[in-house]
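Hi P.,

Sorry for the delay on this. The queue was packed all week, but I finally got your sequence through. Input first:
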Amino acid sequence: MNIIIYQLVNHGVDSGFLDKFKSEIQALFNLPMEEKKKLWQQPGDLEGFGQAFVFSEEQKLDWADLFNLNMQPPPSRKPHLLPKLPLPIRDALETYSDEVKNIAKILFAKMASALKIKPEEMESVFDDELRQRLRANYFPPCPEPDKVIGLTPHSDATGLAIILQVNEVEGLQIKKNGKWVSVKPLPNAFIVNIGDVLEIVTNGTYKSTEHRVVVNSEKERLSVAAFHIAGVSKEIGPLTSLVERQKAAFFRNVTTDEYLKGLFSRELGGKSYLDLMRI
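Then the structure:
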């Protein structure tokens, strides 16, 4: 069941709200630098404005500005970030977070049905303790786009990523049959991408997708990715019924914290972290 990537159109989220949300994301990146500095990443923390997976001063960084924010469960939110955002942006982020979390839970349930397993088995990993991190991305135009990369090729290390393209500038590419293929954005559609954790949990039945972002020489590109992963007390590993059906476990079991600790100790690159999880 090797689903590459798909766009969700009939998702039930009001298009008027999505238009407002897009405007607020644009406003987020248009904040004055003095305001952005108050929301900058703290040492050892990826939340706020900044970059991700940076390990040395010599490292070539992605051509992008990022704003990372833990949104679910609500107690995981940092008091020095969300409350300090302008109220319209904060309200839009909170509503959006709840909407896409509900979509993620519905999709996990539908996947359980497609796999012909009990819903509670999938819910044992992805339940109300579901973690969600929002990452708003701003890719400025670059006069020499062939010399930079907007987002390094990688597969998402989470369960499901739900992505909204804020403006309709192409840039997202997926690797299909060894070649990079552009994803043409559809208005107000969600791009749904399977991550490494879901590949592990489904014992390789669903495959995560390697993807990257290229930049435009003339136009900026904005997007928001909502990453969903198992809660802090969960164990990440192949579901028992799938192991029994396939006569083998293809991935090892780890706690969510062990998984995330290993993830953020490595540079981003392809599906290399997933490969470490294989048996």
